[in-house]
Design goal:
About 80% of the residues lie in helices and about 0% in strands. It is mainly alpha-helical. It has a domain at about 10-55.
Amino acid sequence: MVGFGTLLLMAGLILALIRHLKALSATVERFREDVEPVMERLRAESMIAQARAEEIPERVPKRGADARIRR
């Protein structure tokens, strides 16, 4: 009888674990859906910032012999 009770207890625990895993999975999916627009905006802004960073050396005055001195 003790073995059967333990089996029922383990089955109940496994079922509860499966329910919690399903709930966690649904929560993670909702989180991913909520975060996706923010991540897309960050990617776009990152690309813009990268393009601007690549343009900076073109705008910086030269420092060689032919560089102009600004006062």
